[in-house]
Write a structure and sequence with these properties.
By secondary structure, the chain is mainly alpha-helical. The chain has four helices and no strands. It starts with 5 loop residues before the first helix and ends with a helix.
């Protein structure tokens, strides 16, 4: 009985895929691939996203501090509790 090492078997299987891959259809259209490539090369988009996330994080921290201080009206508290209960039901 022949026994192959897992690495050798994987290499053999991947070698067979090389002949199929060049003829396989693209999962995305070429214009979408080009747009994503151009977007990845633009560092300003990443910096803008980073600033936006930092702003959201600071707003959430400020909101959490206000909640800890007890600055929540009863209606808002009820709404938050209802949303938390709905989220916990969805996780089950």
């Amino acid at each position: 009985m022949l026994r192959f090492a897992p690495l050798a078997l994987s290499a053999l299987l991947l070698a067979g895929c090389g002949t199929v891959a060049p003829e396989a259809p693209a999962l995305l259209p070429l214009d979408e691939i080009a747009a994503r490539t151009a977007g990845a090369a633009d560092s300003t988009r990443g910096e803008a996203a980073s600033r936006e996330l930092a702003w959201r994080a600071s707003a959430l921290r400020a909101r959490a501090a206000a909640l800890r201080r007890g600055g929540v009206e009863s209606q808002e508290r009820a709404d938050l509790l209802r949303r938390a209960a709905a989220m916990s039901r969805d996780e089950r």
